[in-house]
Amino acid sequence: MNCTTGNNRTGPFTGILLSLLRVPTEQIATEYALSDKGLAPIRSSVVARLVKNPKFTAAFGDEVEKRAMRMVSARPETMLATLEMVSERWGSAEGYVKKECGLTDEEIGRVRKVLTEGPMM
């Protein structure tokens, strides 16, 4: 899985997956924030590209650079807010994957088993 900077699509997906695996929320946020170090070498060039985009500039006006910087960062509070929203809206990551992805309890169990114990035979 991937996205341009690894934090706007990949990060939330990974956060939900880790939450489904019952990884503590604080640990998920800490892991997510490690992406910020990886983003550092490309941050200025991605921000510059975003600021030059007329649609992005029109959407954010005077805050365009600030918004672009936030888009090219991976702050722990962002992941905490994402997981809190998932919890409020769907009750949990499990509730999310049941309702939005259509997974059954059995499928969720298999995902947990494969990702925590290894391939199922």
Describe the structure.
The protein is mostly helical and 121 residues long. It is elongated and about 50 Å long. The chain is 73% helix and 0% strand. The relative contact order is 0.15.
Strand content: under 5%
Number of helices: 8
Distance between the termini: 25 Å
What letter string, H or E per element, gives the SSE order?
HHHHHHHH
Summed over residues and divided by their number, the pLDDT gives a mean of 90
| Dominant shape | elongated
Fraction of residues in H or I helices: over 70%
Unreliable runs, pLDDT <50, ≥5 residues?
none
Oligomer description: single chain
Largest sheet: none
What is the number of beta strands? 0
- Cα radius of gyration in angstroms: 17 Å
What structural class results from the helix and strand content?
mainly alpha
